[in-house]
Design goal:
By secondary structure, this protein is of the alpha/beta class. The protein is about 40% helix and about 20% strand. The chain has an eight-stranded mixed β-sheet with strand order 1-2-4-3-7-10-8-9, with helices on both faces. The protein has a two-stranded antiparallel sheet with strand order 5-6.
Length: about 300
């Protein structure tokens, strides 16, 4: 009887094990929780990365965006500005775009302690009048007459933006032998107001502004003498680029000038005037830019 009970228990155990094995085979694969995947950049992540390197700093009179583009992550900010005279000096916008292309292709060109900011078109309405866009364009796209290009110098309120800043500002100003509008007050125009806001908020360490046409590098001042750092910038950009250096712009009286306003604020700033209205002169300006970046490198 005892042996019978032992064999009965063994039979029950074996039968139960077989049953559970059978159930496991017929129930299908176990649904495991998936392993966490490697993080990937979402559309939002990509947009955030893009936004970090470009920003809208203002809006033109006709509602067009005024953009700034950033390269590098350092604390020393160098600001380069083109297109303040819109379609009249369209070549200055192309120099700025060339700089953006160069820095995008050569990120190591920006020293670790620096951030380069480029505002390629400060007067998008004036540029649009001549080339039909406020973004990238080529010299071949400029087919407007000289008269239309001259009209593109001004913003949509017919104000010369380089007469709308707070250094010797006057409502009636001069461009060569012509009378032009300086606006109703210093910074009356949204474009110059955008520049003022950016400079006062970000406090760039030095500013280079492109104009045309005279073929030279001009120091800034606003009745307080030229800053020593501005004198140094003028010389190094001129020496590297081959442009002639000038301590001031004195071809005719200028009021409300942007770089002179920067000097009034104590910000080193220079005007780089291209030789003509149709030459980008990238090689010359690249050499000048590289000299400036090296000057501020630690």
């Amino acid at each position: 009887m005892k042996n019978f009970l032992i064999w009965l228990v063994v039979l029950i155990v074996v039968a139960g094990g077989a049953y559970f094995i059978y159930k496991g085979m017929t129930a299908g694969p176990t649904q495991l929780e998936p392993l966490p995947s490697s993080p990937v950049a979402t559309t939002t992540d990509t947009q955030a990365a893009t936004d970090k390197h470009e920003e809208q700093i203002g809006t033109s009179t006709q509602g067009r965006a005024i953009m700034a583009y950033h390269f590098g992550e350092g604390d020393t900010e160098l600001l380069f500005v083109g297109g303040i005279h819109g379609g009249y000096s369209w070549d200055t916008a192309l120099v700025a775009y060339e700089l953006m292309d160069y820095l995008a292709a050569n990120p190591s060109a920006v020293p670790a302690n620096e951030r380069v900011t480029v505002i390629p078109v400060l007067n998008p309405d004036g540029l649009y009048k001549v080339v039909g866009t406020t973004g990238r364009f080529a010299a071949a796209d400029v087919t407007a007459s000289a008269a239309v290009q001259a009209e593109g110098r001004f913003n949509a309120n017919e104000v010369d933006l380089n007469r709308n800043f707070d250094c010797d500002w006057k409502t009636t100003a001069v461009w060569q032998n012509k009378t032009v509008s300086g606006g109703t007050a210093a910074f009356s125009e949204p474009e110059s107001k955008a520049m003022q806001s950016y400079v006062e908020t970000q406090k760039p360490d030095a500013v280079v502004v492109w104009y045309s046409a005279a073929g030279g590098v001009f120091a800034s001042n606003c009745h307080n003498g030229t800053l020593p750092e501005t004198t140094a910038l003028t010389k190094l950009y001129a020496d590297a680029s081959g442009y002639k250096a000038y301590q001031s712009f004195d071809f005719y009286a200028v009021t409300g000038d942007m770089v002179n306003w920067l000097a009034k604020r104590g910000t080193p700033a220079i005007s780089v005037l291209l030789t003509t209205h149709g030459q980008v002169e990238w090689d010359k300006n690249r050499a000048g830019i590289k000299a400036v970046l090296q000057h501020y490198a630690q």
